[in-house]
Predict the 3D structure of the following.
Amino acid sequence: GQSLEQPSEVTAVEGAIVQINCTYQTSGFYGLSWYQQHDGGAPTFLSYNALDGLEETGRFSSFLSRSDSYGYLLLQELQMKDSASYFCASRDSNYQLIWGAGTKLIIKP
Amino acid sequence: DVKVTQSSRYLVKRTGEKVFLECVQDMDHENMFWYRQDPGLGLRLIYFSYDVKMKEKGDIPEGYSVSREKKERFSLILESASTNQTSMYLCASSIRDSSSYEQYFGPGTRLTVT
């Protein structure tokens, strides 16, 4: 089976940097995705890591270490609009996504 | 842009009613999914379909059924609604290849069963 663990809540200050961690246990690994979901909205895709290392997309970066079964999402120059829930997800061999429970990011001014 | 639409944003039904939730995508995606989302539990997969008339059970299929008669449309059916099915229901679609890590979601249907 597969499972992904992430913190339930993270708090940070506007303008700062925050890291949201995700550890996974999978029988087969096909990469790690990150999604953002604002309250009342639908999840939207942010980034994907198939290989070890850092992927950067503007203020957001995602990192993967397959040897450690670990990844993280890094958000820089935090803005109030980044307040949302963030989910890590891993694809399985049947093209489904297995989801973490989500991390609520609270940003204080 | 990929567009996934769901038939209702909000729905209120009575216990025992049969409920239909419709989802349509316009990008010719092979895969379609139904999730429910409850606070603190993340997204839980109810059913998915990788082709017309094909369906696979997800993690929590009990009390639900699905129908996929056309590629673009995937329906979720609650045969006899119960209060514990009050939830946010999200439909998603994806292509069926190595890029399937990216799912596209509809806006969701918030269902209340009274």
User: Anything to note?
Assistant: The two ends of chain B are 37 Å apart (CA to CA). The mean pLDDT of chain B is 94. The CA atoms of residues 18 and 79 of chain B lie 5 Å apart. The interface with chain A takes residues 31, 33, 40-45, 48, 50, 56, 58, 90, 94, 96-97, 100-108 of chain B (CB under 8 Å).
